[in-house]
Amino acid sequence: MTTTQIPSYNELIKKSIQDHWSMDSMSDYGLFTFQYKDVARIIEKMHILFEHAGVKPGDKIALCSRNLSRWGAAFFSIITYGAVAVPILHEFHPSQVHDIVNHSESKILFVGDKVWPNLDANEMPGLQGIISLVDYSLLHSRSEELTSARENLNKLFGEKFPDRFLPECLNYHKDQPNELAVINYTSGTTSNSKGVMIPYRALWSNLDFAQKELGHEIKPGDKVLSMLPMAHMYGMAFEFIFEFMHGVHVNFLTKVASPTILMKALADVKPVIIVAVPLIIEKIVRKAILPRIQDPKVRLMLNIPILGDRIRKRICDKMTQVFGGNFYSVIIGGAALNKEIEQLLHNIGFRYTVGYGATECAPIITYVDWKEQVVGSCGKNVIHQELKIDSPDPANIPGEILTRGLNVMLGYYKNEEATKATLDAEGWYHTGDLGVLDANGNLFIKGRSKNMLLGPNGQNIYPEEIEDKLSNMTLVSECLVVQRDNKLVGLVYPDQEQIKNLNLSEADIESIMEQNRKEVNPTLPSYAQLISIKVMDKEFEKTPKKSIKRFLYQN
After folding, report:
1. Which of 179, 235, 419, 510 has a 20 to 30 Å separation from 205 between CA atoms?
2. Where along the chain do the CATH 3.40.50.12780 domains lie?
């Protein structure tokens, strides 16, 4: 498809609001609900404020908060005005937030109540105003016009719409496919954050993919539970934008997703699809499923024809109920899913699929429906995207994964050097990930090229593959494999709950880890075996999408 055939994205936003005017749109779970017409009203009021603050189409407006309905409404108000949205992960350190606001040259900042007390307006001198995402009140202003407009907002809205505010009143910025829509700053697992420039065509292409893959299974009025940070492209695209454009009611889980809170919310909302990172799935499987099937009697019965099938169905039904019992599919992405956990999900017939993407592709690169999921794979290249492996033998020798198409970014904001290193002259985005493609086009990821280690005779070692095995060993909660003096060392944060229950001493833990090392080494090539396992006394530092910040532990 050429860019000339791509519809206006803002027209699609307008159409969804008009089509679903009196339907529920967004809720802060357990607190309150906005209908589509409420979102439309907020959009118009924000447009009045932007205008009085001197914001022009193309200017940047930042958002920094946990997931909230008012975040969602503010995001659409920015896009439909023609300004550029700059979502900032609320877990970032205040100094990082200041830096991103300044680097992006944002004119306005929408901020959450948990973030605002730690920020300093003086550190962000380019801002015209700071607006609260609790009630859209003005927290800080450098513009008399903005202050006056906020004080008289209802009056100005009444003057703009002297009769009734109706669906036909909506009039939004006419966007172009290659126009900049969002600057999304990466979480920086391997280096400092970079501002990924996402054009409207990439937002539309991801939306078109979701509607073609899931639109037939999901209908207006259905519900989803939003758990992933909306400031990350994965959560934004598939837990928020697609649903809003499809008439689905988005319920934002505004609290930290502890197992108790999450289970209750899933049971209440009964989401029609679930978008998750592997960490959530693995924790639920390890707590709710693995203890049941590790019983020797159950393992024996699983091998008996008919009876084994019944037991597997019962396990699958329980797992399905844990997730609300009403979903078409659980979509897993953001990091690698543990192979043993995935094989278990496959064996019991659980409806899951694993996708693959990158912020630079807004985010989707590969995906298949759960019915076509191949164990260990993360799908095939999606609509509007090409895929290839930079390898002499892409089916057998891992090479860098390259992709190009409508999803791919414009580049990194104010960083030509990083852009040139990632986007080549033919438009291929170099992901930095290594993979192979089978004969049917299924992608199997082998690891990050930056993470790849060299063995004593130049062998390629993929630490993720060793970590995958190690994570299934006794007492291992989280792990990382690093190279020290050309030897491989496993770093392990042990399962604190098990330690407490079994009343284990430090010496016990060390002994168990040594036993783990002896058990895992025979399953690995000689050049990839662990010389030792070091026990960590606290959890690994992670990005908001729950990837371990590997670079912090290399030395």
Report:
1. 419
2. 3-250, 274-326+329-448
- DSSP structure string for 212-258: HHHTTT--TT-EEEE-S-TTSHHHHIIIIIHHHHTT-EEEE--S---
Q: What is the DSSP string of 311-340?
A: HHHHHHHHHHHHTTS--S-EEE-SSPPPHH
The neighbouring-strand residues paired with 130 are 109, 140
Q: Which CATH architecture has domain 274-326+329-448?
A: 3-Layer(aba) Sandwich (3.40)
Give the strand order in the sheet containing 443-448.
Answer: 385-390, 399-405, 429-437, 443-448
Chain region(s) in the chain for CATH 3.30.300.30: 461-553
Helices (H), 350-462: 416-422
- DSSP β-bridge partners for residue 343: none
When the pLDDT of each residue in the chain is averaged and rounded to a whole number, the result is 92
493: its two tokens: 């944060």
- If we measure between CA atoms, which residue out of 234, 191, 240, 256 comes closest to residue 334? 234
What is the CATH code of the structural domain delimited by 461-553? 3.30.300.30
* Spatial separation of the C-alpha atoms in residues 24 and 27, rounded to whole Å: 8
**Mapped to the 3 state alphabet, what secondary structure does 124-135 carry?**
CCCCCEEEECCC
pLDDT of res. 188: 39
**DSSP calls for 30-49:** TTEEEEHHHHHHHHHHHHHH
d(CA 278, CA 323): 14
Calculate mean pLDDT across residues 285-289: 80
pLDDT, tens only, 469-526? 999 999 999 999 999 888 899 999 999 999 999 999 999 999 999 999 999 998 887 8
Exposure string (b/e) for 490-506, b if CB count within 10 Å is 16 or more?
bbbbbbeeebeeeebee
pTM of the model: 0.86
Instruction: Enter the tokens of residue 157.
Output: 């809205």
Q: Report H helices in 93-143.
A: 94-103
Beta-bridge partners for 311: none
